[in-house]
Design a protein that fits this description.
The complex is a heterodimer. Chain A has 13 helices and no strands. By secondary structure, chain A is an all-alpha fold. In chain A, α7 crosses α9 (178-187) and α11 runs antiparallel to α12. By secondary structure, chain B is mostly helical. The termini of chain B are far apart. The chains are: A mainly alpha, B mainly alpha. The interface between A and B is medium-sized, with 29 and 41 residues.
């Protein structure tokens, strides 16, 4: 006897409509996990967005600000270092000569960007101290004491003089007053002339060097420290900082 | 006594569930889990699938309970969510390839109403679970949930004609299966 469709359907309905079965404990666990998970996620959202924005700002800062920052920091350090370590510079100029060629080219481009960086020479100061300090240490101490007030101009002259003079000359300088030093510098025309002549041209390069130093410092190794030494000579002339640095670099480059 | 206490608790539970109280959610779940698993089983191929559907359905219940207005039966509300959750499960995990227009199938197999009525609920459940998903969904929605073809078309995302033909095919397959079972029984008996 054939069933009507309605009859057939109602048979299924009557037997299955109230069908029950006990679920396993996994179902409730899964429900709580998902409810908690979504709550946690929602709670984390604001923090995640904050973290993301901070990361982006930091990345932007590293990309665009770093050069200026390194230059500024170094400047402050430079002032102290330059005053204390003027004599050391003697040895530096010689050492620097070999490397300047490579650096000068690269530096020139950054220099334009880093016009602000004038202070950059400071970076080189620490390196100078390390290398030069051991050799000239005794002489330097005396000189520094006398020179401290004299200002940078005097220091520059001294530096110029020192390279020319042999190691023995150093003691003499120490005893002499700043004025005496100046006279000595004048007495040694050949050395000073070269440097002075070089200075005017180098100015542009100095900025470049500063930039170069900054960039180098950011990613540099010990080798770069050597480069910094070049800049250290610049630091000694810190009053004219940028120009001096450039001049030294140029000198080196020209010499080579 | 039990009934009154029960009813009071449901309303109270709903309020507390709206406040996102975990203990109330658990009590509400325990109150309806078995019944709703019975619903999901009809839409599933096996018990594992049914429990997945049940889990998804209850998560929706707790997420949407704020929108529940006491204008209808709460059980009916939950049941509708379970049905939708079960169909959505198939949309997600199975392409409803079977939900296409099929020739209107005439049911050739004749089945004894008495024989069908002797089948246990478990047997009928097994028969439904063995249907292709498209047939199963339409048969459930029409024969057991009581939706019209128009409503089914909307819920399942198919045409009304497809709903009708799928229903017809589903019945036909079920009757064939019942006849087979009957034949086996008679075979063993004889």
């Amino acid at each position: 006897m054939d069933m009507q469709d309605k009859e057939f359907d109602s048979l299924f309905r009557s037997k299955l409509e109230n069908f029950e079965a006990e679920p396993t404990g996994q179902v409730w666990l899964g429900i709580t996990e998902q409810l908690d998970g979504k709550r946690r996620y929602r709670a984390l959202l604001p923090w995640l967005s904050i973290a993301a924005s901070v990361t982006i700002l930091a990345a932007a800062g590293i990309l665009f600000i770093p050069q200026k920052k390194t230059g500024d920091v170094k400047h402050s350090d430079k002032v102290n270092i330059a005053k204390t370590l003027p004599p050391v510079i003697k040895t530096q100029p010689v050492k620097v000569k070999p490397e300047p060629k490579a650096t000068a080219e690269t530096v020139t481009h950054p220099a334009n960007r880093l016009a602000h960086v004038k202070a950059s020479p400071v970076n080189s100061a620490p390196a100078k101290v390390k290398e030069a300090a051991p050799a000239s240490a005794p002489a330097i101490d005396n000189v520094v004491k006398h020179d401290e007030q004299p200002v940078l101009a005097v220091q520059q002259k001294q530096e110029l003089v020192t390279p020319v003079l042999p190691a023995e000359a150093a003691p003499i300088i120490n005893n002499k007053a700043i004025g005496a030093i100046q006279t000595i510098a004048a007495a040694n025309p050949p050395v000073t002339d070269k440097q002075e002549a070089a200075q005017p041209k180098p100015k542009k390069r100095v900025h470049g060097i500063g930039g170069f130093l900054n960039t180098v410092i950011a990613a540099v190794d010990k080798r770069k420290d050597k480069i910094i030494e070049f800049s250290n000579s610049d630091d000694d002339e810190s009053s004219n900082i940028s120009a001096v640095n450039l001049g030294i670099l140029k000198f080196k480059n020209k010499d080579k | 006594m039990m009934f009154l206490e029960h009813k009071y608790t449901i309303d109270e539970l709903i309020k507390r569930c709206k406040a996102n109280e975990r203990k109330a959610q658990e009590l509400l779940y325990k109150q309806f889990a078995s019944k709703m698993l019975g619903v999901c089983l009809r839409y599933a191929t096996d018990r594992m699938e049914a429990e997945d559907m049940l889990q998804n359905g209850f998560i929706k219940v707790f997420q949407k309970i704020e929108d529940y207005r006491a204008d209808g039966s709460f059980e009916g509300w939950i049941r509708r969510i379970m049905v939708h959750s079960s169909i959505e499960y198939y949309r997600k995990y199975h392409k409803m390839v079977q939900l296409v227009d099929v020739e209107q199938a005439e049911s050739h197999s004749s089945v004894d109403a008495l024989a069908t009525s002797k089948l246990a609920a478990n047997d009928l459940m097994t028969l439904i679970q063995q249907l292709a998903p498209g047939y199963r969904i339409v048969f459930n929605l029409y024969a057991i949930e009581g939706y019209s073809h128009r409503e089914i078309a909307e819920i399942a995302g198919i045409s009304e004609g497809a709903s009708k033909s799928q229903l017809s095919r589903a019945r036909s397959v079920l009757k064939e299966q019942i006849a087979k079972m009957e034949g086996k029984r008679y075979g063993y008996a004889g």
